[in-house]
Each structure stands twice: as structure tokens, then as C-alpha cells.
Amino acid sequence: MTDVPSPIPTIDRLRLPLADLLGGYEVPPGHFDELRTDGATLRSHWDAFARHAAWNAEALGAAEARVAQQIHENGVTYNVYADPGGASRPWGLDVLPLLVPAAEWETLADGLRQRARLLNAVMADLYGPQQLLQDGSVPAALVFGHPGFLRPCHGIVPPGGCYLHQVAFDLARGPDKRWRIVGTRSQAPSGAGYALENRITISRLFPDAFREMHVHMLASFFRTLQETLLACAPSAAEVPHIVLLTPGPYNETYFEHAYLARYLGFTLAEGSDLTVRDDRVYLKTVNGLERVHGILRRLDDDFCDPVELRADSALGIPGLVQAWRAGGVLVANALGAGILESSALFAFLPGASERLLGETLKLPSIATWWCGEPAALEDVLPRLQTSVVKSAFPRAAFQPVFVDSLDEAERAAWADRLLATPEEFVVEEYVPLSHAPSWEQGHICGRALMLRVFLVNDGRGDYRVMPGGLARIAGGERQIVSSQRGGRSKDTWVLSDAPVPRFSLLQGRLRPEDINRSERIVSSRSAEHLFWMGRYAERSENCARLLRAVITRLPYAEALPLAMAQPIVRTCVRQGLLDPEDGWGSADAAGSGSDALERALVRGLVDDKTQSVTFNIIQTVRAASAVRDRLSSDNWRLLSRLAEDATGASHGSLTATHEHLDRVIIALVAVGGLETAHMTRDDGWRFLSLGRHLERLLYIATTVRDVAESGLFEDALLLEWLLDLSDSLITYRARYMRHPEWLGVAHLLTADQRNPRAAAFQLARLAKHAKALPGGGMTEMAVALQHSAEACETRDAWQGELFGGAHSLEAVLEDAETLALSLSTELTLRFFSHVYEPTHSTAIL
């Protein structure tokens, strides 16, 4: 397409600030300029954008701040292994989109669809008749020597005959304005979820431009992905159950895995969540084993099955290859697709297209030579200086070598190396990347650009192209890099010449059977993480309230002896705020002095050595991140802010510590409020609630026992402290309008089922949840919990003798604590660990 320049130079007729913003915008000679035609005139589509969007430093600066805030609040991250700055790095997103005109996109999409059909046909041939190898269209050594070619997968025909359900291509635009394919992502293409998040963020910044420029929507692409997987899954008369297979929370793109699972309505599962039985795959759920009909994998080929593929993989599903071979499950993409990512394959795709499709390739790849062919080696040596050398077979330690950046001796050494082991290397032409405008540090500058475009099989032999993509711009380096090296992303706007229809991912009218299957499946792993999220969240609040209740009394002389009292010190040790190795668990700990106690408690806010408040909050967020697909955006924002505030705490004064604890407690109460008021009452919520009530019961039982056993239960200040850390002080005062007395305190904290902080309240709720658990519930445990709740209400427990009797307060609370621990063990054995399940599967050879 030929760009149509504006009748008048755009910079002259726009407000002066634009000229100022573009004052530092430069594109190196020999690189295509995405923004301007002749170094002064905006391209037509950018001129339209400038007319509909606010182009001035103040507006773009404010937009940049909003983008950063939304990315932070939504927790959009790209995880980086072994990064000294932290594993989770915020996603980089430029405020200016990449604009692609309609006619240009139509040509590009047509070529990409053809390339996707070709790769699907190539894979079908390589794992089937291998005609390409027999007639020499593709060298056999290149295929059989590549680790991406999986021999156990030869001869397997996937359900529906489709090998590539989704594929992504990395594109670069050269100085001649033509797009070239520079990379293929065929195993588990990543980035579509990030592209969707980018779209949601950037479209809100420029709503007028987005509407008036007729930008294509992305939802139809994801709808096609849904429909294709559901249609291809071997489910007979059943409604297909699709899972998104993730390596887990430490994978670099885990945010995207959780994001897409939630958006598509698929179950997010790790390899350990799945098991193979009779050539079928099942998900371990709290209801038992649930059939899985399709797997959308985000796990590389060789990690998927430790039985037939990589034996040391702890991420895969033992027996998956055999289940797939037998037609018991859809795997998308088909295992073995990694061979298609070989850079050396580019050199042979034109011939393969003529052989398999009878078509000439419409969209070129970057010029590539596999040095294992003598003719190619002869051709490449004279042009080596302007080329890039890559490994023909994937090696993690080998980085592409830009030969023009080497000195003469290094170039000669590379020429010798190519001659010595030519089959090991691929040589590619160096393409000067196009430059696109990027908003950085108060002005618009030019950055090198690459574009990843995604395609999905439409179930009818063709592919649908996402009308957009994930554009990436370089940081300070010459080549485009992923987020771990400072590159950023861009939203990609594909323009239309006419208004575009609105499209929703949601399907049409519900049917009665849709209502029957609407209950969301809860995997055992999700249930366990939700359970521990509840426990750690409650533990965090308990520790924060305990610490605040103690340090608020330290500055006052009349309360100081109380703060040093044995039950308080013992409770702090039990909750992990004081380290027993420092002597705080000994009988004479109270003699250590108030200064020592103050320092130890302030350290207890953040120290890793103890189970500090910060430690428990981090564990809460860690458990939550493993079930992020089940949490609302508001819930995650609260947790993210809480974690940020907690990790920012330091050893400070009592005043600073007190203020920090106030913020933490308010945030924790808000998290609990969201869980109570907004979470659907499904099995996932039930396990979360079980964790909270169980942890609160243990806290109440132990703290009340500590006071009871101390013999100081007539001390009004100590009882006030006990009510304070149980958040029941106002209730007591409103009810009795007098100083705390043991009879009232003991009843309020143990027997009163109207008090959400009472032991009886927790026991009753635990009994209710235990009875309603999947599989008919834990009836015996529910009965025992209910009996324990009734025992707490028995008058003898809180009004009679404290010690010695079968129904004394001490005995009742000790029994409740034992019962709570037994409940935790039973939940683990029955719902989380599946101890009755074999831990391995074998292949039929």
C-alpha cells in the first residue's frame, strides 16, 4: 500500500507542542520509518491518530502514569528467573500503539494464513509419510538431528487431523517496507494474553481515536480458539472439558496463563493435577477424577510426558503421549511441533510449499542458509560480514552473533568455524528493523520494532489471524529482546476502512443443560492453595493484631508489666513474632527488659528468621498467585497493594510500626470482606473459608489457654489485651459496660456463637462446611466439630472450675485445637494429596 501524505505537513498544522515532542525523533539511515514518510510528514494513519488523540507532553505523560498504575494494580508481570531485582518484573507497555492500515494488513494476513497451513502440512508429513525427506525437499539430517523432532510421536494422527491449533510468527519490516517472517512459535505460542491486556489498557487511553479509526476487535480470535478446541476434543456425547496446562507460578508468562484460563473459561492445571487412566486424562478434583477431553498446553514438548519424552521432567503428565496416541485426549498444539521452530527450516519452506500445497509462498521469510549444504555454505561465506549466525539446533547457551559487530580477527574465526562444522549453524541476512514512535522520558523517540502475530485453526482447514498482535520495541540494544532485557511492548491497532462490528466472547442463549453444568470445577491443587490462602490470610491478621496489641502498651508505665507478662510473651512466641532461640521461650524471658522486647517485636514485623507479619502476608499472596484465575481483579489489586506495603516495611520506631500495622490490618480486613461479600459459594470458596475458620479457631484456643493457664485471668488489663487482639473489645463494652472480667471474656471468646471471633462460632462454621464438602461430606468430622461447639457452650467450661474437670475451659479448648489439626490432616489426605491414587503411569510399548 502506498502511504497518502497529508495535503499540508502535519506538524505545521497541529499544535506547536507536537513539533517539540518530535524534535528528538530520529530514525537511523537505512531503516523504515513507521511514523513519517520523508522525515517531516506523518503517514496518513498517524495523521488520523494525531487528530483524534491528545498529542502533548502533559497528556502523554498522564497516559504513561495511568498505564503504569493499571499494570501495577492488575499485577501484569513477566517473571524472570534468577533476576537479582526480583522474579516478577512489571510488564513494559508503551502508551503509543502500532498502527497498521487495512490494505497492508489484508495482504499480510493472507500470507500468514498460507504459512500456517503450510506448517501444519509439513508437520503432518514429518510425523507421517515423510515425503519431504524422501525426495530431499528437506534434509533428513536437519530433522533427525533437531531435538524438537520427537520420535515417539511419529505415526500419531491427532483428533481432527489438526497438528497446529495455534501458531505465532515474529515479523520484521525491512528498509523496503516489506514484512518478513523472522521466527516461528509453534510449541506453545505465548503473548496473545498480553496482547489482549495491552488492548484493554491502551484503548481506554485513546477512546476517540480507537472508535473513529475503526480498530478491529480481538474477541473473535479467542472465540475461534474456544470453538476449535471444543469441536476437536474427543468427547462423544459429553460436554468437552478443556484445561490450560501451565508449568506453574514460576513460569515467565504465568500471568498470561491465569489470564487466558479465566478469559476463555478453561481450567488452569499443572501437570501434577492430571493423571492418565486407561488412555484417558483426568483432573484430580475435590469431587474425584474428572475427565479431561482437551489440553491447551503452555508447556514445551519434551516436558509434557516423563514416560516417553524427557524423563527428568517434573512438570508433565506421565502417560500423556499414550493417551494422545490412543485418541483419548486432544493436545493443542500437537506434541512434536518444536521442529517447526528451527531457523534452518526457513531455507526449505518455499520448496515444501510447492511440494505440499502447490503454491508459491506469498510472504517471505528472512533470507536463511543452512551451512550443512555445500552450495549454501559457498553462497554465504562472501556475505558473512552482514549476516547473523545462529545455532541450527537449539542450545540455551548460544546467542545469535551479529558478525558486523565483530573485528576482523573474530570474523575470520567464525568463517573457520563454519567450515569446520557447517551442519551446526544457520546464517541469516541482517535486516535493519523498522523504527516506530515510542513515548519515553517526556518526548517521542524512535525504537526498533518487531511484531508477533497469532493465528488459530478455524476447524475447517484454514486459520484465523488475530487482527492485532504483540508489538515489541527494543530498549537500548540493537535487536528486539524479551522483557527481561528492557524491551517494551505495544498494542497493535489494525485499522478498517469501515466501522467494525462489536463482538463478545460470550456465546448465545443458554440452554437448560448449560445450567446443569455451570458449576465450576475445583482441582485438588486449587482447593489446597485456597485453603492455605485462607489460613495465611487469617494468620497474617492475627499476627498483626497481636503485634499491635502489644506495642501500643509498651510506652505506658502502667501497662509495661502487662506487656512483659508470661502469657503475652508465650503467645508472641507461639505466633512466631519472637524467636525462642533468642531466649524468649524460657521462664525468665520477662526479665529481658522492655527495650529488648521492643526491638524483638519490631523485628518480628519483617524478619525472615521468624514467622513475621510480612512473612505471612507474602505466603498469603504466594498461595493466591497459584489460584489467580479464580480471584477477581479487585481481590488481586488489594493483595498486590498489601504485599507491596508489607515488603516495604523496615525496622523503625514504635510509632512507625504502629502506623504500618494499622494499614496492614485495614487491607487484610478488606481482603476478607471481598471473600465474604463477593466470592461465589462454590467448593473453592468453601476450602478458603475452611482455612480461615480453622486458623482462627487455633488462634483463639491457644491465646485463651495461655491466659487461663497463667493464673492472671483476673487482671483487667490482661483481659482487655485479650479482647483487643481478638477484635472483641467494643462488643464486650457494649454488652457489659464495665471493665473486663473473666466470666464475660471467657464466654464471649469461647461460647458465644453470635461473636465471629468465638471458638464456638468457628467450630459451628467448620462443622457446616465439613458436612457440605464434595463426595457426601465428612460426616463424622462434622459431627465431632458440632459436639465441640456445643461443649464450648456448656456452662461448666466458662463458669465452673478452670482446670481438672472433663469439661473445664482448658480441656474444651485443648480438644478443639486437636480437632482442628485433625481436620487439616483429613482435608489434606482426602482432597489435596489423593493418597489413594498411584503416582505414576506406564506406556504401552
Would you write up a description of this structure?
The structure is a single chain. This protein has 845 residues and is of the alpha+beta class. Among the domains are: 367-429, Dna Ligase, domain 1 (2-Layer Sandwich), CATH 3.30.1490; 527-679, no CATH class; 680-834, no CATH class. Helices cover 44% and strands 12% of the residues. A hairpin with a 5-residue loop joins strand 18 and strand 19. The chain starts with 9 loop residues before the first helix and ends in a 13-residue tail after the last helix.
Task: Give a quick rundown of the structure.
The protein has 845 residues and is α+β, with helices and mostly antiparallel strands. The longest helix is centred in the middle third of the chain and has 28 residues, at 524-551.
Calculate Rg over CA atoms: 32 Å
In round numbers, the mean pLDDT is 86
Shape type: globular
According to DSSP, the number of beta strands is 21
Task: Give the end-to-end Cα distance, rounded to a whole number of Å.
Answer: 56 Å
Strand content: 5-15%
Label the structural class. alpha+beta
> DSSP helix count?
31
Helix content: 40-55%
Report on the biggest sheet: 8 strands, mixed
Low-confidence spans: pLDDT under 50, at least 5 residues? 1-16, 81-86, 802-806, 838-845
